[in-house]
Amino acid sequence: MITLDVALGDRSYPIYIGRSLLGKAALIHNYLSGKEVLVVSNTTVAPLYLDKLMASLEGYRAESVILPDGEKYKTLEYLNDIFTALLEKRMSRQTSIIALGGGVVGDMAGFAAACYQRGIPFIQVPTTLLAQVDSSVGGKTAVNHPAGKNMIGAFYQPKCVIADTDVLSTLDDRQLSAGIAEVIKYGLIRDECFLLWLEENMEALLGRDAAALVYAIERSCMNKADVVAADEHECGQRALLNLGHTFGHAIETAMGYGEWLHGEAVAVGMYMAADLSARLGWLETTDVTRVARLLERANLPVKGPRISIEKMKDLMAVDKKVLDGQIRLVLLKAIGDAVVTDEFDAELLDQTLQQCQV
Amino acid sequence: MITLDVALGDRSYPIYIGRSLLGKAALIHNYLSGKEVLVVSNTTVAPLYLDKLMASLEGYRAESVILPDGEKYKTLEYLNDIFTALLEKRMSRQTSIIALGGGVVGDMAGFAAACYQRGIPFIQVPTTLLAQVDSSVGGKTAVNHPAGKNMIGAFYQPKCVIADTDVLSTLDDRQLSAGIAEVIKYGLIRDECFLLWLEENMEALLGRDAAALVYAIERSCMNKADVVAADEHECGQRALLNLGHTFGHAIETAMGYGEWLHGEAVAVGMYMAADLSARLGWLETTDVTRVARLLERANLPVKGPRISIEKMKDLMAVDKKVLDGQIRLVLLKAIGDAVVTDEFDAELLDQTLQQCQV
Question: With an 8 Å Cβ cutoff, are B80 and A145 in contact?
């Protein structure tokens, strides 16, 4: 088992990465403060892993609430189902919430924990690669609004993150690739050595080689923990983790949440960011090809769906990085070196949006 | 103008109390960080005071959203109207929210500020006595759930509180009395000198004597600020501010939110707490009569509506003070000296609930 730390003073917490962690009752108990637990999961994950987790909660009053699976249910309305479950089961302020699922479950369970009785503790047990390498770490929780992704939420840190790599064996291929998109992101924004490793080990990852997966998760979480520790509330460098996300969120919102997986939309968005960076003269054409090649090897798209340029820009203007009415984007000064900037020609952005559609 | 401070380290903020503050543009501008403002108000307050506040926001991109008036609209559903307004008007993370209204508006606008884009700044401009003396100070924000009051929310401090006493001239008598209930609360839990002052000046308060109102607001806010500074997240003494609230919230929930005003339900709850304290031998019967007399002079009820004892206890079990399945209540060791305790005979609680109904 590997242990990493997210260093946030009195809100610091560990990330555990390894096999069979769902069965390690004593490990989990360390992070439960009271005797009541509500497990939040979804209709895909619960049949596979809920019993196993519940067995590790013997001696606790453990209840569960099962949400429908998918990004389109990441709404205030379904969030309320968690509150209703907590209240119907008379769960007190000493209750801990455990998020057992992917990014949607983690975001919703974490946000519910942030709000129930104005804040109760929670634990992340991510069951997708995307959640294990990205969304479960760093305390960003949220639900979507029809007009914008992740627009309603809280910065709220978990007590720990438990990434059991065994659960990845049941992840479908499309979800695995979506997770790899966020893994590639770390290489592109700040870790070119990792990118080189990914270029050498993409087949092992896709083949679910255990050692390769553990290394990719560990290195991703190290990158994420570093950035979060330096800038918890995204006043500066944390925004770099948003590479591809302004484009990606616009695609997700335009297509209807869940039509495109988040990682797929981010893959296209990263390609768009590389393309625009090249148009600005920051990247070579060979760099853009390199990005495309790696994404394609991960079975990820690099071209987005047909959406009018006006609509894309309209949706991109609903973004947490907007400052003084200006869209700001994460772009690449070089492979492994990202910046947040509003210094791009509007014409070049139009060209990128035009060029990077199917 | 009187200035008080809520001492919370880097989250400290001032409370301004005085006349004509809505028109003091420079004062308000000091607490706006960006150039965008969303004013949240309701259908009762907006026609009276929105224009005045908007005039003080000249030079800003100021928008407004008007909620229906009343506790029954303090829900996730109407909270979403604030998010929709923010998104439709393309308000960025640099936007400040101003809550212009009573406790419901303040709670909802504050909670929306806590959640929009994971947190934007906000200012409290309370327009009821209850909001000026209590709910606008201390950073408790929330919405109700059908199963329990204030169960979904956040601790989120405003940048400042601006209590313009001129606006109390348009407050209806019932709302004025409801506010006085929370004023009396401070006297009962920790400030017997203030209680004596209230006993001498109740007629002046009801007659809206300007000096009396300002003094009552100032002294209430001093008490509140003291308690909040010592225990922001209610790990200890802040719970004392809940005197009468476990009973009161149960009445509000049972009757349907808004049927009883919060202050009215709290008045009955404080009388119940005094009654139970006397049954426990902590208060004299004369103390209980003293409490009843003062509440009645403020035109507040001391007897609750007919609700079965079982239902009352069931609703009282949905309370943030519940610990290990036990209802905990704020009771009075003496007038001016409250405690949080679960050491009361269940039989005596039943007697109190039985006795204190119409």
Answer: yes
Q: In B, what residues contact A, Cβ < 8 A?
A: 35, 76, 79-80, 83-84, 87-88, 90, 92-94, 114-119, 140, 142, 145, 147-148, 151-155, 233, 317-318, 320, 322-325
B115–A154 C-beta distance less than 8 A: yes
CB pair distance less than 8 Å for A154 and B154: yes
Report the distance separating Cα A51 and Cα B157, nearest Å.
Answer: 41
* Catalytic residue numbers of B, as ranges: 118, 140, 182, 224, 234, 238, 242, 245, 249, 262
The CA-CA-CA angle for residues B110, B146, A120, to 5°, reads 55
Cα separation, B88 vs B82, in Å, equals 10
> Tokens representing A335?
């492979």
Pick the closest to residue B99 from B56, B66, B77 (CA basis). Answer: B66
Indicate whether this complex's ipTM tops 0.85: yes
User: CB count, 10 Å around CB of A339?
Assistant: 18
Q: Are A213 and A165 in contact (CB under 8 A)?
A: yes
**Residue B87 is nearest to which of A83, A145, A233, comparing CB atoms?**
A145
Residues of A labelled as active-site residues? 118, 140, 182, 224, 234, 238, 242, 245, 249, 262
- Give the integer Cα–Cα distance in Å for B286 and A48: 64
Number of neighbouring beta carbons within 10 Å of residue A32: 20
Percentages helix, strand, coil for chain A, rounded to the nearest 5? 50, 20, 30
Number of helices (H), then strands (E), belonging to chain A: the values are: 13, 11
A92 to chain B: nearest residue by CA?
B322
Cβ of A151 and B83 within 8 Å? yes
Tokens representing A223?
A: 């990158």
Where are the domains positioned within chain B? 2-170, 173-355
- What is d(CA B7, CA B136) in angstroms, rounded to the nearest whole number? 15
What's the rounded Cα separation, in Å, for the pair A116 and A88? 13
d(CA B76, CA A219): 39
Distance between CA atoms of residues A112 and A81, nearest Å: 10
B2-170 CATH fold: Rossmann fold (3.40.50)
Q: Which of A119, A142, A148 sits opposite B155 (nearest CB)?
A: A119
Q: If you search the block for the tokens 């001391």, which residue do you land on?
A: B302
Closest CA to A291 of A278, A305, A279: A278
Q: Which residue of B has its CA nearest to A235?
A: B93
Which residue, among B118, B238, B246, B320, would best test binding to A if mutated, counting the most A CBs under 10 Å from its CB?
A: B118
Residue B76 is nearest to which of A80, A114, A151, comparing CB atoms? A80
Nearest to A301 by CA among A267, A250, A274, A263: A267
**Class of B173-355 in CATH:** mainly alpha
Cβ distance A147 to B79 less than 8 Å, yes or no, reads: no
Q: Quick check: helix, strand or coil at residue B96?
A: strand
Per-residue pLDDT 10s for chain A (358 aa) are 999 999 999 999 999 999 999 999 999 999 999 999 999 999 999 999 999 999 999 999 999 999 999 999 999 999 999 999 999 999 999 999 999 999 999 999 999 999 999 999 999 999 999 999 999 999 999 999 999 999 999 999 999 999 999 999 999 999 999 999 999 999 999 999 999 999 999 999 999 999 999 999 999 999 999 999 999 999 999 999 999 999 999 999 999 999 999 999 999 999 999 999 999 999 999 999 999 999 999 999 999 999 999 999 999 999 999 998 899 999 999 999 999 999 999 999 999 999 999 9
What CA–CA distances, in Å, run from B21 to B126, B157, B158, B250, B259?
Answer: 11, 20, 17, 36, 32
